[in-house]
Amino acid sequence: MDNLVIAGKTYTSRLLVGTGKYKDFDETRAAVEMSGAEIITVAIRRTNIGQNAGEPNLLDVLPPSKYTLLPNTAGCYTVDDAVRTLRLARELLDGHSLVKLEVLGDPKTLYPNMVETLKAAEILIKEDFQVMVYTSDDPIIAKQLEDMGCVAVMPLASLIGSGMGILNPWNLQIIIDNASIPVLVDAGVGTASDATIAMELGCDGVLMNTAIAAATNPVLMASAMRKAVEAGREAYLAGRMAKKLYSASPSSPTEGIITPAQTGAPRSA
Amino acid sequence: MIQLTINGQPQQFESAINVAQLIDLLDLHGKRIAIERNGEIVPRSLFSEQMLAHGDQLEVVVAVGGG
């Protein structure tokens, strides 16, 4: 079986999905189920005190018994905020230590601040967190994160929520070639072909949220993404043909072609 | 009378209470929450032991949808 292994745990799906931006919990659940994802990201936020006491909880809709929840640090701009958020997440999820670290640098682009990310990763790894880390597509930084002990590196394809697809496949290729831990594209996927291209490059998985949630029909897009990731993975494993500008080798046999008809030849009586 | 700051909002309480009592007063009993007090996690197992003090800063969080 061709499985994804992260921090010693085996997953059959290589598609990881976020749970934000859906219309309601029903749509969240339907899209997540259709995607086939086993790892799903969640955010950690202040609860509304004294309001919506009977409001359903995300964890009732997507129970930790069924999914591997990956708490994130979305919205954190400092080491301290990111580390505190994940300590709260670990307590909330009964000691679960697999987390997604992202430390953002700028509210306009949501581009990661890698200086702060490296510092936060170091603290979290010392505290025995298993850190999947959102990173720029800098191959040197990605390798440093691996060497520190992160369990997966997750370079952006393009900016969070942009849907711009893979803007620098060459950097991704270098990161993949250098890595001995899983490399997952996180952020920037816009449609199914983007996910397929990421997998064809040799990524171990793809993490996405907006591409599904902001589709006109999120559940159908979740289905498309599931197939796209599987197709890309199979194409990668199968090994694509070499590209060439001309082919001197047609697909059909060059032997046994019928000879041209003799036009204007005399017919026998 | 003690004052606690809960998720950034100051709130007054008649008398000294522990974390478990606070959770009941906030109508959060049975909810999946985690609590940080003055920057430190309060483990669930210590909710009924840990007394809150005037001026404490508390963060009460839940899991929500996110990417």
C-alpha end-to-end distance of chain B: 41 Å
Low-confidence stretches of chain A: none
Oligomer: heterodimer
Sheet with the most strands: spatial strand order of chain B: 2-1-5-3-4
**What is the CATH-assigned architecture of chain B?**
Roll
By DSSP (H or I, 4+ residues per run), the number of helices of chain B equals: 1
Using only C-alpha atoms, the radius of gyration of chain A works out to 23 Å
Strand content of chain B: 35-45%
Contiguous helical run count of chain A: 9
- Computed structural class of chain A: alpha/beta
Number of domain modules of chain B? 1
How many runs of DSSP E, i.e. beta strands of chain B? 5
What Rg of chain B is obtained from the alpha carbons, in whole angstroms?
Answer: 12 Å
State the helicity of chain B in percent bands.
Answer: 10-25%
- Approximately how much helix is present in the residues of chain A? 25-40%
Write up this protein.
- Chain A is of the alpha/beta class and 269 residues long.
- Chain A is 36% helix and 16% strand.
- Chain A has nine helices and ten strands.
- Chain A has a five-stranded parallel sheet.
- The longest helix of chain A has 21 residues, at 218-238.
- Chain B is 10% helix and 39% strand.
- The model of chain B has no long low-confidence stretch (mean pLDDT 93).
- Chain B has a five-stranded mixed sheet with strand order 2-1-5-3-4, with no helix packed on it.
- In chain B, a hairpin with a 2-residue loop joins strand 1 (2-6) and strand 2 (9-13).
- Chain B has one helix at 19-25; strands at 2-6, 9-13, 34-37, 40-42, 57-65.
- Chain B has a single domain (2-62), classed as Beta-grasp domain (Ubiquitin-like (UB roll), Roll), CATH 3.10.20.
- Classes of the chains: A alpha/beta (269), B mainly beta (67).
- Strand 4 (39-46) of chain A pairs antiparallel with strand 5 of chain B.
